[in-house]
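Sample entry as discussed:
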Amino acid sequence: MRVNEEKLIAALLSSNSTKEASLKSGVAERTIYTYKQKPEFKQRLNQAKTEMLEMTVAKLSNSTAEATEVLADVMKDKEANPQTRIYAARSVLEFAAKYTDTVDVAQRLEALERRQAENSSKTEGWME
C-alpha cells in the first residue's frame, strides 16, 4: 500500500500523538515511525511545521492592532471596573516593553550579521 504523504503530514500536524495521526490518516503507527526516520520525509514535515507556524504568527500579527485598541478602550473607559482598567493599562505597557525589546534585539542581530558578512568578504581575498 502506498502512503499518501501529504495526508500523513496533515494528520501529524493536526494530531496530539502518533496514534491519533494513525487514526486520521489510515496509516499504521509503525509505518508512521518508519516515515519519521526518513530524512526527506522529516524535511517535508519540518517545512510544513514551519509554514504552519509562519501562518499562525501572521494571523496573530494581523490581530495585534485590534487587540491593542480593545485594551486601550477598556483602559480609557471611566465606567469600567478600576481593576479592569489597571489590568488593561498594565497589559499595554508590558506588551509595548516586550515589543520594544524584540525590535531592539532584531536590529542588533541584523547589524551583527551585516558586520560579519562584511568582515567575511574582506578576509576572503586575504588568504588567496
